[in-house]
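User: Show me a protein chain along with its predicted structure.
Assistant: Here is one chain, sequence first, then structure tokens.
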Amino acid sequence: DPFTGQVDEIRGRDNAFYLAVDERTRGFYILPLETIEHLPLAMNIGVIVHEYAHAVFQHLVYDRMADGGAGLNSTAYNYIYSLNEGVADIMAVMHTGDPDFMTHSLDDSWAARDASALILYRPSYDTNAMTYVDLSFDPYEIGAFISAAVYEATRRMDGLSPLEAGIPGETLRTDVAASVLDALRATGGEDLSDFTPALFFDRLISRLDPDRAAHLCSVLRARYAIHYGDLAGCL
């Protein structure tokens, strides 16, 4: 823990993470492997890209906030924290072409991070974002939803139907990843005091050509139904 100096025995091993304490103290950490019996985290390219994407998110979003986000209410901060995890997974999936890159290193308990899974946005996600503070909040619920929605939209952009197996092509994945980064740049330059995932999706939709945007809207209409009316870009 960068603030107390205590070591969490669960997270203090078999882990990889990016940590920015301040502008000068930040880094990418891979901790000793003790129990992982599969592909070591340092050899899982998806994990490496995921953590590097956190550094990019730090630069494009957190560093552009006057106080690093400390002045945000906890709900907005939790949504942004979730977006950070979701974008990191998007970048890993788009780079590797593997929607389930985590399971090469970790067991089936990480199945919820499979971007090829059908994940619907639940009211409980909002309840949790509005209720929990600091480390008690789990950003992976909403993050996994964001990653899965963008991945499925990318598949449809490549002509793959929802019931059809297949991985979108590398050129398309690169294009979508670039659009996600453009959306982050726009998001980081705005007042985020009322931030919700819908704001990010709107920024992403506006950076896709009309045909690709239509595919993303179609996925969000089904998966983000409780907030679909908040998406100005899809109306």
